[in-house]
Amino acid sequence: MQMGNGANLGGPSRNSDEEEWFMKVRIVSLLAVASLILAFAFLASTHAAPNKANAPAAPTANALPAATASPAAEQHPQIREALGALRRAKEHMEHAAHDFGGHRVEAIAATDRAIEQLEICLKYDKE
């Protein structure tokens, strides 16, 4: 007795090579989207912040007196939040019971590179 074209008797609906390819595409897509989000957040914050080299030497008439000025706010809270999230994700992957379909080592390496780049961004901002 023949079944329809799409019928499969208890086996997986895709072969493992196809599943692996789709998993890789998903991971690469997620990393690309995360990188773009971080890049746009960084670009938006650098354009919004005044350039230190172009700051006026003398205070302007609109400047607040030192006594009423608020303490310095966090420069880049989104980047610091992203760093924390990346560190937590890395910690989770390092201690997970499974290897995420063989992608754990590569994902940890990509996370390390992302953390390193964000730390460089924050160091550059301090200069």
Describe this structure in words.
The structure is a single chain. The chain is mostly helical. It has a domain at 20-48 and 75-126. The chain contains three helices and no strands. It has helices spanning 16-48, 77-95, 104-126. Helix 2 (77-95) packs antiparallel against helix 3. The chain is elongated. Mean pLDDT is 74; it is low at 51-56 and 58-71.
Helix segment count?
A: 3
Encode the helix/strand succession as letters.
HHH
Unreliable segments of 5+ consecutive residues: 51-56, 58-71
End-to-end distance: 75 Å
Whole-number average pLDDT? Answer: 74
- Estimated structural class: mainly alpha
What is the rounded Rg?
Answer: 24 Å
Task: Give the percentage of residues in beta strands.
Answer: under 5%
Helical content class? 55-70%
> Which word captures the global form?
elongated
Largest sheet features: none
Number of strands: 0
